[in-house]
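Exercise: predict the fold of this chain.
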Amino acid sequence: MLTIGEAAQRLAVSADSLRYYEKQGLLVPTERTGAGYRLYDADALRRLKFIKHAQQCGFSLAEVRELLEIQGREGARCEDVRRHATEKKLQLEHKIRALRAMSAALSELIDVCPAQNDKPLEACPIVAALEAGLAVPARSEESS
C-alpha cells in the first residue's frame, strides 16, 4: 500500500492530480488510514497508469471515464475500445490538418512582413493582412 504522495511520485503525477481523479470518480483509494490518509494498492496504480497513458494518447478525462466504464461493463468487447480509439485518432488527424493550415497561414503573414521592419503599427503588413482576411482559410479549415 502506498500513500498518495508515494503513489504520485511513483507515477510522476502530483498528489493534487490524484485527488482530482478521485473527485472525478476515475480513481478510488483502496482504503484510508485511521487519520484519513489515502492508500493505494497495485490495482489502483494500474488504473492510474491506464488514465495517464490514455491521456498521453489524447483522450480527455471524460473519454477516459468512458473507457474505464467499458472495462467494468459485463460482456464488453475489445471492439468497443477499438471504436473509441479509432474515433479519437480521426479527431486528432482533423486537428493536425487544422493546425497545419493555421501554420501555413501564419507563414504567409510572416512572409509579407520583412524582418527588422521599423514601420509604425498602422503600416504593419501583418495587421493589414489580418484585417483584410488573409488568414481566413486557416480558420475556415478549423471549423469544418
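Check your answer against the key: Residues 136-144 have pLDDT under 50 and may be disordered.
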